[in-house]
Structures are given as structure tokens and as C-alpha cells.
Amino acid sequence: MLKKIFFYPALFLLCSMYAIKFNDIDYDFFARIAVGKIFFQTGSVIKNDIFSYTVTKDWIDHEWGSGVVFYFLGDKFGDTGLIIFKIVLFFTVLFIISQIIKLQNIKPDDHKSILFYFFIIIAVFFGIGHTVRCQLFTFTFFALWIYTLERVRRGETRLLWIMPVTMVVWANFHGGFVSGLGLLGMYGVGEFLNKKPCLKYFITLIPTSLVTLINPYGVKYLGYIFFATTMDRKGIGEWEMTDLFYSVKHWYSLKIVILIVLASIIFYFWKKRPKFSEIDKVKFIVLGVTFYLAISHIKHQAFFVISAASFVYQDFYAIFGAVGNYVRTRFGKTASKTLYGLNLAKNAIVYMVIITAGVIFITHTPFLVTVPANKFPIGSVEFVRQNGLKGNLLTIFHWGSYAAWKLYPNCLIALDGRFEEVYPTRTFYEVGGFISHYSLPEIGYKWDRFLDKYHTDIIILGTHNDNQLKSYKAMKENKEWALVFEDLISAVFIRKKDMKTSYKNPGIKPLPFFAEKYETKLEFTKPVSVEL
What predicted TM-score, i.e. pTM, was given to this entire model? Predict the structure, then answer.
């Protein structure tokens, strides 16, 4: 009875608490809402970069739809709209997982163990609930597709229409739509190995793939997606391998999920000793492929967590069922009543704590999307803006889109997080070489070569990262550049010949600043040739 009444409210409150508590903004968020603002002003998707002074390519934005949604929510509803949006998608993923588990012929409400979902929330949080990002759409669609395909496996073939229809949206919101195509392929191969009808999955792949051409860029979009999914992203944190052995605490939540999966699989084979024909190949193919993705790239961990939660729940709780049955057989009715009472008490305490804490937290915590001063160069960007500095601005990869949003058109940037969309790979490494003070004397490559290649007027450097600190110290000794401002994590350098006699020191009050983060001078009028 407790599960039936309180499970989904408790799950919603857990998602809400995490989404509200961890509320700092993503580095690339400002590039996304810039696209959204331009779309609402012009009625079109921008296809050429306007923010950079370095060499750029045609801009193919695989996240343009997400940018439109994010800008609309931020512009019309502010932080509250974005936080609620994150909560809704976060909860939707968990709700869909619960429905996938429910399909697995278990007793009513047995799919509602709140502690299991608590571990899943922690493990999947980095990819879904930590901040407002375009991948929110991918993980939501990924969970929805697993649910749909599981129903198709149970005879509801008519539901395959959902794939091409939802793909039209997915392909325009995030490049992760390729995971959906992969999922269809995995189900097709798995059902083939299960010796069950599989042709329908491969047939569905045809229209589902073709509708990806419904985008602002046409066939070029697919070429870009192939490039983006196969390129080397070395040097970008979230695209690094997941190092499970870095430390005990590192990725502890993912390790818990991996242990749950291993325990479930071992118990399944030990208890049932299935023949090869009795093993569900779809389940193990999806788990295997998504585990590989999770280890290959930190960013892909959520694929594995969603898959694990969807497929191992029943096997995992079968372990506890077997232990309970042993205790009942060994100790009789008294033990059975005791276990029932303990389980009831546990559920009552857990739900009371979650609901009470959730209600108190949500009603006493503001719905704010923060721009942390220890993550963004808030003071340095405000110094440039308030003092009216203009020209080409060089800053680190992660800070580029924030600088462009706040300083365009007075300042153009060298690089930002759109690097595979806009910049040649060489530009990424040239900027990175300067920022990290990287030289190769044997071939005559100097760390500051970038300044010789591109005229730069303003530099915002990090002052706390070890590699960036080398460039910061070197620039302080550079006779052509002057340090004019520092905040908590960054410093502003300008050419000495351009220095003024005095500068305004930016005064930043946190709450008013957060309220102004959506303000920008990014303004466009609708071109005559654009049709709305």
C-alpha cells in the first residue's frame, strides 16, 4: 500500500531535490541560447559563425532545437522555467524505467523499490540532472525507445511508428540520436539470435534513418554527424575514458550500478543455469554495448545506467527473494512475519524521510540556475564589458560561449565549446597550446604562436589550473601585455599600447547578477529573404 501511494511522489521529490540542489550552468549553455535567440529574432537557424575571429567552418548545429527550447524557457520563465524543465525530464526518465520494469511480469507494485531508484538517480545524475544540457533529450528518448521496443517484443508491433516520428525531433535536438539507431540495430540482432521475428526492426531503421534528413542542413548534417561521432576528442574532460580505478570514491555511484549488474547476472546464471537458447540476447547485447560506451567516454555513462536499471531489476531483487525464502524455510512463520514487519517499517521510514525532506527543501530553496564564480570568469568578463573594451578576445575553451554571450558584438572570441561544429581541429589545438603553455622546441613550435597567427586584443586566462598558470605567469612577464584585472579564477590582459589611465572595477552582487545572466547585446533583425 505504501508503494502504491507514495512511490511516484517520492521519486518526483528525489529528482526535484537533486535538480534544484545541483544547479550550476553548463559551459556551453550560452552558445545554445544564443542560437535560440537568433532563431526567434530571424525565424531561421544560423549557418555561419558570427562570434569568432579565428578560422571557422560552416556551422552545422546538431543542438539547434535544444537552443530554441532553452532560450524560450529562460527568456519567458527565467530560472524557474529551466529548473522545472530539468526536473520534468529527469523524472520522466525514471518513470519510463519503472514502466519498463513493470513489463517484466512481476507482481503489482514490485517494480517500485525506491532505494533502487535512489542509486540510479545518483549514478545517472551526471548525464541527466546535473545541469540543463541538450543531452537531456537524448537520454529521455533513449529510455522511451527501450520501453517502446520492449512492448514491441511483447507483440505490439504497431508501436514501431513511434521511432521515425520521435526521430524527427530527436535528430534536431541532439546528435545523440545515433544511439536510437544503434538501439534499433541491437534489438534486431538480439532478436535474430533469439530466433524471433527480427526483420521489423531492420525495416523500421529505414524510415527512421531517412527522417534524419528533415533538418535545416539536409544531407550535410549526416556528414557532420559521422565526423562528430568518429573524431578524436582528446583533451575534453567528459570525453575521456571512465577510470574506475582512479580512486575508491571516484565514480562510486557507477561502480554501485556495475556491482548490481554483476551480482544480478551471476545470480541469474547460478540459479537458472539457462541454455543458450533461453538467454535473452537483446538484454545482454544492450548491456554490453552501453557498458563499453560508459567506459570509453564519461559522457556516455547514463546510457549504461538507464539500460542496467531497465534490464536487471528483476534479477537483482530475485537475490533478496531467494534470501527471504531461505529464511522463511529455515525459521518458519515467525521469521516470515518478522521480515514482513521489517520491510514495512523500512518503507515507512524511507518514504517519510524522502517526502518530509523533499517538501521542506523544495519550499525553502530558490529555483536558481547559478553562474558559479569558481567556474566562470564572472569578474573578468564584467571588467571587459563595463569598461567598454573591444576587439578579439582569447580565453579558454570552456569560457568562450559565456564570453561571446556577454560581450558580443564588442568582442569576438577565439574558440568555445562548439568546436566540432564550428572550428577546424587545428584551431582547437592552437588555442589549447597557448592556454596550457605547450611548446615543441624540436620542431620550432612555441606556446604563444597563436598570437602571431591571429591578432588578439584581450586575453582572459585561468589562474588556478597548473597548466594555465604557466601561461598566466608568462604573460605577466610579457613586455607587450599588461595585467589589468583579476577575479577569483581568472585574469585580464590587454596590449600595453591600448591601456587606459584608469579602469572601472566591476562590482558584482550575486543575486542581481544571476537575474541578469540572460541579458545580451546579441540583436538581429529578420532578413527580408527569411520566411517565417
Answer: 0.91
